[in-house]
């Protein structure tokens, strides 16, 4: 019964979305106020119904209602509660329902918190948002109905794929979707602004918190996914440049560009058309990602079971949304008033350059992702594009961008002083060069790119600190004055400092991990030792252990450093009972300079086990960097400029050159 | 500064960036930076030069999985049911590796004509056959709709 209520609620949400898409739009065009005002209750109602539908599905998973097809295929009564719940989105149908629910959630948020929006803009934005909803609810109902039943109901389920029985599934997809889907708000705002023919600083202030929220979630979601792939064997490590990974990375890149260009619209009333275009393309990338993940046109390590028919449907949505929005853009963008001017050396120019670099990087990733498809269509050889391609194309273009990220914030608006900025960065420059020299010396220059990566990472980290120190006049004036400035610096400024510093930390971690990872693979008997990365691993024993729905062989390692006890590691090899499939659970222990990483493989039947041990240098820096970036996003979001109804005010402390 | 001059600057920079990117991508395509996908039948007909990175896809041949004397190097054959290639892999095989199951290995041929895998790729879903494997089976004429699933399920429980 609850399942039917869920199904019915999904249909009702569709009906409300139809009303929300048509009436407010017509109302805004004809000036019918009551029709425009309909958008708010419709958006809230649509979200409420979708929430009911989603919770009905979660309920079916929790109570193990195997008469529902996807519960039968993806759950089992013996699974822990966490995996029963996360199993809801551990499959195509359920995850799509989550996708739509989050889409409506964002619409409802705009409806509730958008009280200070001009009524026309709000009506149009919510109307566009509802159009996206309609497309995806129809997609869910017609190709991927999560509420389909089987009769007679099976007694037991087939269990969730053991690889997905992991806390990673509980948090990674929802965060990723909040990021992906959140960009729909920027898209809807952009389309609404094109219909209005007006973009100003206020528009940028309304769009920015939503973009920030999406960007922050997407950053967190990607990092969680990378972490999951890192400890799961056979998924290619924390980043494999797999199409599905790229599918989330492209919207992240474009969203990053959008965040930066929106600053220019807000502060200087320039780059307006460009920002609208970015908002459209960012969500376009989200849709493209959805298409790549769910259609199966491209082979990926992370693919779920796929269906070409669904691919065609998503491609149609992508075509209509992007084609429609871009046509509107071509028609309406010339109406926009040209914005403020700036010199080739200025903050605006630096942000513009940032945008050009990021879009070029997105282009490179897009080409790499689609090349196998292009080759296939042209009837050429089958190819796969992996890390070597990206190392060759992506890294060289991103290096100057990172260099720029330290310089840009030190340039003034309108006209900047490049030599002055560079003079203030002399310390960062020395640190960067020292980093390159030391890194090259450690590995005898065998990895030039790695040395450069460490160098630019240090440069950005130091440069970010310099910029913050300049703002608060650290050591330039009395400390009480600096302290006063620190307290009055706008939150958005702190957000930038944190985000840039986090990026720098992550770059250093990623570079070191990619270049200097070590591994040992060996057959090992209890009592034997392996030495790697300055640690000694002694295999004490391998024993049988029992989990809720699996049995496992657990290895017991004692790790010694300089002959002293350091830690113990317990990697496992699990055998799940329902699906006859072993999974490998790595044991990881982090320290400041890296991770100890141990994996136990199969036994040879004569008392020895295959053992794989990695020395993963600086990997914890990647996660630290990501956390700092996410923190930066939240701090920036809390800036009072973006708070609803807060009067705009001048930031108390302007950078020296402003 | 005039608006036109500014536009010109931006245009030049965009074109330079785009040109660099395109150049890098094209040179990547022309070199060894992208790996070609090959099927067992293809490499039997035209051997790949030793040392070139390729991806080899097919099914893990039943009863072919074993180990070399060092105890840590796996040896198995990848087949498209017409031809098969011997693969050596030193490391822990991924969780979904099983006889009869689809597999994609990345690596290169050594001078003795054996394929040395650097990476054995596992999928998230055990019922999902990589598109390349399907293609390899189709090209060898051994593909039947639904048959692959039987090949996989039929060999369930065979633990290397």
From TrEMBL, chain A:
Its main location: membrane. It is found in: Cell inner membrane. Residues 89-295 form the Cytochrome c assembly protein domain. Residues 315-640 form the Cytochrome c-type biogenesis protein CcmF C-terminal domain. The chain crosses the membrane at residues 6-26, 47-73, 96-114, 126-144, 175-195, 207-229, 249-266, 273-292, 312-331, 352-374, 394-413, 425-442, 448-466, 492-516, 618-637. It is a multi-pass membrane protein. GO terms for biological process: cytochrome complex assembly. NCBIfam families: nrfE, PRK10369.1. This is Cytochrome c-type biogenesis protein CcmF. It comes from Dongia mobilis.
TrEMBL record, chain B:
Residues 1-7 are cytoplasmic. Residues 29-160 are extracellular. It is found in: Cell membrane; Membrane. GO terms for cellular component: plasma membrane. Its main location: membrane. One of its GO terms (biological process) is cytochrome complex assembly. Signal peptide: none annotated. Heme binds at residues 124, 128. Pfam families: CcmE (PF03100). SUPFAM superfamilies: Heme chaperone CcmE. Heme chaperone required for the biogenesis of c-type cytochromes. Transiently binds heme delivered by CcmC and transfers the heme to apo-cytochromes in a process facilitated by CcmF and CcmH. This is Cytochrome c-type biogenesis protein CcmE. It comes from Dongia mobilis.
């Amino acid at each position: 019964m609850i399942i039917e209520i869920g199904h019915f609620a999904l249909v009702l949400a569709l009906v409300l979305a139809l009303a929300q898409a048509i009436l407010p739009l017509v109302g805004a065009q004809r000036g019918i106020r009551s029709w425009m005002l309909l958008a708010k209750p419709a958006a809230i109602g649509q979200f409420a119904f979708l929430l009911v539908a989603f919770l009905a599905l979660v309920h079916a998973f929790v109570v193990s209602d195997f008469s529902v097809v996807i519960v039968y295929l993806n759950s089992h009564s013996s699974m822990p509660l966490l995996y029963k719940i996360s199993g809801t989105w551990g499959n195509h149908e359920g995850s799509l329902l989550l996708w739509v629910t989050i889409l409506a959630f964002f619409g409802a948020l705009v409806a509730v918190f958008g009280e200070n929006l001009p009524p026309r803009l709000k009506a149009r934005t919510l109307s566009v948002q509802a159009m996206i909803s309609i497309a995806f609810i129809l997609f869910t109902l017609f190709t991927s109905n999560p509420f389909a039943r089987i009769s007679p109901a099976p007694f037991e389920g087939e269990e969730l794929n053991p690889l997905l029985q992991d806390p990673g599934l509980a948090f990674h997809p929802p965060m990723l979707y909040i990021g992906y889907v959140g960009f729909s708000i920027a898209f809807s705002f952009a389309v609404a602004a094109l219909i209005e023919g007006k973009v100003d600083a206020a528009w940028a202030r309304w769009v920015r918190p939503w973009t920030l929220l999406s960007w922050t979630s997407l950053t967190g979601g990607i990092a969680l996914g990378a972490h999951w792939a890192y400890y799961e064997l056979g998924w290619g490590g924390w980043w494999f440049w797999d199409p599905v990974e790229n599918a989330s990375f492209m919207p992240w890149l474009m969203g990053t560009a959008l965040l930066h260009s929106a600053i220019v619209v807000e502060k200087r009333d320039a780059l307006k058309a460009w920002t609208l275009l970015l908002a459209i393309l960012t969500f376009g990338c989200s849709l493209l990602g959805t298409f790549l993940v769910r259609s199966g046109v491209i082979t990926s390590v992370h693919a779920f079971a796929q269906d070409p028919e669904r691919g065609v449907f998503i491609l149609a949505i992508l075509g209509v949304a992007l084609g429609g929005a871009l046509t509107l853009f071509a028609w309406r963008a010339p109406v926009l008033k040209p914005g403020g001017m700036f010199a080739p050396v200025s903050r605006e120019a630096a942000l513009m350059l940032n945008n050009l670099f990021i879009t070029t990087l997105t282009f490179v990733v897009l080409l790499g992702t689609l090349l196998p498809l292009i080759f296939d269509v042209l009837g050429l050889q089958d190819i796969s594009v992996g890390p070597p391609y990206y190392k060759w194309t992506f890294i060289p273009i991103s290096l100057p961008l990172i260099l720029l990220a330290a310089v840009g914030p030190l340039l003034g608006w309108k006209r900047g002083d490049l030599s002055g900025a560079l003079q203030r960065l002399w310390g960062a420059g020395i640190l960067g060069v020292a980093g390159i020299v030391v890194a090259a010396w450690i590995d005898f220059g065998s990895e030039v790119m790695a040395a450069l990566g460490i160098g630019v990472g240090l440069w950005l980290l130091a440069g970010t600190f310099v910029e913050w120190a300049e703002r608060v006049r650290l050591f330039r004036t009395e400390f009480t004055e600096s302290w006063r400035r620190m307290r009055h610096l706008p939150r958005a400024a702190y957000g930038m400092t944190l985000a840039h510093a986090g990026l720098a930390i992550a770059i250093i971690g990623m570079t070191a991990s990619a270049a200097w990872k070590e591994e040992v693979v060996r057959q090992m008997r209890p009592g034997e030792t392996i030495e790697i990365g300055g640690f000694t691993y002694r295999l004490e024993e391998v024993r049988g252990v029992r989990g809720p729905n699996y049995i496992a062989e657990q290895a017991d390692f004692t790790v010694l450093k300089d002959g002293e006890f350091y830690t113990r590691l317990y990697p496992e090899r699990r055998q799940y009972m329902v699906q006859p499939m072993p999974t490998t659970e790595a044991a990881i222990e982090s320290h400041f300079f890296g991770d100890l990483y141990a994996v136990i493989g199969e036994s040879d039947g004569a008392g020895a086990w295959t053992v794989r041990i990695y020395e993963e240098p600086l990997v914890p820096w990647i996660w630290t960097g990501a956390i700092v970036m996410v923190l930066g996003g939240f701090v920036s979001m809390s800036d009072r400029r973006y708070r609803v109804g807060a009067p705009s005010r001048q930031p108390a402390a302007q950078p020296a050159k402003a | 500064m005039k608006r036109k001059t500014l536009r010109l600057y931006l245009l030049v920079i965009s074109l330079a960036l785009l040109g660099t990117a395109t150049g890098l991508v094209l040179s990547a395509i022309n070199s060894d930076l992208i790996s070609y996908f090959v099927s067992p039948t293809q490499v039997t007909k035209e051997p790949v030069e030793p040392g070139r990175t390729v991806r080899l896809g097919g099914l893990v041949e039943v009863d072919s999985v074993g180990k070399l004397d060092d105890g840590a190097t796996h040896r198995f054959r990848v087949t498209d049911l017409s031809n098969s290639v011997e693969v050596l892999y030193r490391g822990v095989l991924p969780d979904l590796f099983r006889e009869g199951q689809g597999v994609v290995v990345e690596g290169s041929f050594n001078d003795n004509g054996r394929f040395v895998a650097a990476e054995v790729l596992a999928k998230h879903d055990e019922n999902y056959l990589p598109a390349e494997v399907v293609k390899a089976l189709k090209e060898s004429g051994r593909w039947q709709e639904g048959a692959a699933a039987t090949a996989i399920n039929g060999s369930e429980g065979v633990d290397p």
